[in-house]
Amino acid sequence: DEPYTNNFTDVLEGAYYYDAVLWAVNEGITNGTTETTFSPYASCTRAQVVTFLWRAAGCPEPASTVCQFVDVPKSSFYYKAVMWASEEGITTGVTADHFQPGATVTRAQVVTFLWRWDMYPQADKSAGFTDVPKHAFYADAVDWAVEVGVTKGTTAKTFSPNDKCHFRYKRRLPCLYRCCRWWYLSLICNR
Q: What SS3 state is found at 106?
């Protein structure tokens, strides 16, 4: 593989997200907002995160041709991604028939999508965050994500699960990058 050339004026070498951005663009998971800008400070939506996962998985065709979510138009770039994620159990939507594709994704939602994509692995111990209730839908996902190094807390004691992910590529792609690297390594090691 030839190394990817960074054409983005807003993705500077040395930034902690630099490798993740170049990896994601090179792998076809995402692209820039223009030919020369990536916009690492732009917000990230639920539709975008699910699309990143779908592309990282190789753009598998969903089994169904009809989407259960009434707010996911067939003509949208994320239509197949949301259908695939729903069929795989990665998302259940915000209700049985609504996905809220344009909503800014939260930290809890991102780690839950990644955790479900990895087939619900159990962490060896709790991350111990005071703002992650034991029975929250995302509690096991947070414990797993911290344990395998996909993410960490916003402080030593808090995860801030309801914080919106306002940094579309700056914050989420490094998580996806670390998750994919961890996932690929675990596949190789467990053969």
A: strand
CB 121 within 8 A of CB 112: no
CB 85 within 8 A of CB 53: yes
Sign of the C-alpha dihedral, residues 168, 163, 112, 178? Answer: positive
Q: Residue-wise pLDDT tens for the chain (191 aa)?
A: 566 789 999 999 998 778 878 888 888 888 888 999 988 877 788 998 899 889 988 999 999 999 999 999 999 999 999 999 999 999 999 999 999 999 998 889 988 998 999 889 999 999 999 999 999 999 999 999 899 888 888 899 999 999 877 434 444 455 555 555 544 333 323 32
Q: Yes or no: say if 65 and 87 are a contact pair by the CB < 8 Å rule.
A: no
pTM score of the predicted model: 0.82
Structural contact between residues 161 and 138, judged by C-beta atoms closer than 8 angstroms: yes
Reported for 9-17, long-range contacts at CB under 8 A and 24+ positions apart, including other chains, are 9/36, 9/37, 10/37, 10/38, 10/39, 10/40, 11/38, 11/40, 15/40, 15/170, 16/174, 17/169, 17/170, 17/171, 17/173, 17/174
From CA 113, how far away is CA 44, in angstroms rounded?
A: 14
